[in-house]
Design a protein that fits this description.
The protein has about 300 residues and is α+β, with helices and mostly antiparallel strands. The chain is built from 13 helices and four strands. The chain has a four-stranded antiparallel sheet, with helices on one face. It is elongated and about 75 Å long. The two termini are about 15 Å apart.
Length: about 300
């Protein structure tokens, strides 16, 4: 169930209310004439069955309220009372209902911003991963993968490609390139400092690097994991499954590969640097490509089952 609040211009309210009143998925419709401020207009509130959301939101888009009104949507966690889902709507498919695409896209766009904290988290995650690689600690590497925020930029680029919008693609790729560049440089400086201080773990100096070897040797299994992680990421976003999205962060090796690349440069291990760079590029490219294709496929899969208006 969703709760929607609209500040509607007075000349639009009549059409808006007619649309909402005619849709069986709309409940608890409240209209307060002249009650909205900033933007000024009429306040319209209603509850909406999730299964009826896509056609209703499409009609709201057609009213072109951008710049004149506002539409706010929030999820209702629980409804203690209320009627059954509207008759005439398609039943959920195996317990699932169609994703609310307006909310999915708004969530991805909301994450597709790149303040200084985005780059700070990228650097911190790479440094944690660098320590994990030096000490052969898989726990630290996994922790670094959870900290890294790069998937928000990756899926924003994928959505931009799927919608053929150049601006989010350019912004996301620029954020990824600059963020990874800063993080690799930070890992390299860290590696040089550790090497100069003489605190490099003995096993790492002797070439016993099981964690690094897993990261800087891209192969068929790297592709398989990246593809599966990309699919899981799209499904988790469209179905609002946060736990699955955390699993995506742990599955992909963008963070470890960037850290391994920085360390390899610090220790002048050129073959390891090349392998880490290939691993990084492979994961980012697969995540973006499969993410865009997955979003398009999700729309295709759910289109026949979307509730009719």
């Amino acid at each position: 169930m969703l709760h929607v609040r609209i500040a509607s211009p007075a000349d639009v309210t009549g059409r808006l209310v007619a649309i909402l009143a005619a849709d069986p998925g709309v409940l608890n419709l409240v209209v307060l004439m002249g009650a909205a401020r900033h933007p000024d207009g009429d306040a319209v509130q209603f509850d909406l069955h999730t299964g009826a959301a896509n056609p209703v939101f499409r009609q709201l888009r057609d009213l072109r309220l951008d710049g004149r009104g506002s539409i706010m949507v929030e999820t209702v966690d629980a409804a203690l009372t209320g009627p059954a889902p509207p008759a005439g709507r398609r039943r959920p498919y195996h317990g699932e209902i169609a994703p609310v695409w307006e909310m999915v896209e708004a969530g991805i766009r909301g994450r597709g911003v790149y303040p200084p904290s985005f780059f700070a988290l990228l650097i911190i995650a790479r440094l944690i991963a660098a320590v994990g690689i030096l000490t052969n600690s898989q726990i630290l590497v996994v922790g670094a993968m959870v900290v890294g925020p790069e998937y928000s930029a990756i899926i924003a680029v994928a959505l931009g490609i799927e919608q053929r919008r150049a601006v989010p693609v350019r912004q996301g790729l620029a954020a990824l390139a600059s963020g990874f560049g800063l993080a690799i440089a930070a890992a390299m400086v860290f590696g040089v400092a550790i090497r100069w201080s003489g605190h490099v773990p003995r096993a790492f100096l002797l070439g016993v690097r099981p964690v690094a070897d897993l990261i800087d040797n891209p192969n068929l299994f790297s592709v398989v994991v990246a593809v599966l992680a990309a699919v899981a990421g799209v499904v988790s976003l469209t179905e609002s499954r946060a736990n699955a999205l955390i699993g995506v962060f742990i599955s992909v090796t963008t963070i470890p590969a960037a850290a391994a690349l920085g360390l390899a440069l610090a220790f002048t291990a050129w073959s390891h640097a090349l392998g880490s760079a290939l691993q990084l590029l492979l994961n980012v490219a697969v995540l973006i490509t499969v993410g865009a294709a997955g979003l398009r496929l999700q729309r295709f899969i759910w289109r026949p089952r979307a509730p009719s208006g």
